[in-house]
Amino acid sequence: MPDRLKCLDAMDFVKDWGTWRSTLKDGIQKGKSMGMSDETIQKLAVKVGDFLTAKVCPGNPEEALLKELWEAGTADERKAMAAMIFKAVK
Q1: Closest by Cα among 63, 50, 72 to 11
Q2: Backbone φ and ψ of 56, nearest 5°
Q3: Neighbours of 39 (CB within 10 A)
Q4: Which domain range does residue 43 map to?
Q5: What angle do CA 82, 89, 34 make, to 5 degrees?
Q6: How many domains does the chain have?
Q7: Residue 52: helix, strand or coil by DSSP?
Q8: pTM of the model
Q9: Which pairs count as long-range contacts for 65-73, CB under 8 Å and 24+ apart, including other chains?
């Protein structure tokens, strides 16, 4: 439990992998409808990934794996990971 004191609990609406993917897809669609390019959305995704990794506890095993990979990756690897996640949920 001490680790949980270092980060926020996962957001209540992200209870499973399908919901997480759906939430990301909705966010991408909203960004596009506001005129954002894929590149801009992906750059924003890197910033969000950095924030989530630092501040939010993973809510499921998949999020825990993403956090572990994100923390192990270089800045370029994180950009690549964000781009792959973007493609996967698009």
Answers
A1: 63
A2: -120, 130
A3: 9
A4: 2-89
A5: 80
A6: 1
A7: helix
A8: 0.74
A9: none
CATH number of the domain that residue 62 is part of: 1.10.760
Residue with tokens 């825990």: 64
> Scanning the structure block, which residue is given the tokens 């794996």?
65
Q: Give Cα 65 to chain centroid, integer Å.
A: 11
Distances (CA, A) of 33 to 26, 30, 47, 49: 10, 5, 20, 22
- The answer to whether residue 5 scores a pLDDT higher than 60 is no
Q: Is 31 helix (H, G, I), strand (E, B) or coil?
A: helix
Q: Using alpha carbons only, how large is the chain's radius of gyration in Å? A: 13
pLDDT in tens, 14-42: 567 788 788 889 999 999 999 999 999 99
CA distance 43 to 61: 25
Query: pLDDT for 44-54, tens place per residue?
Result: 999 988 988 88
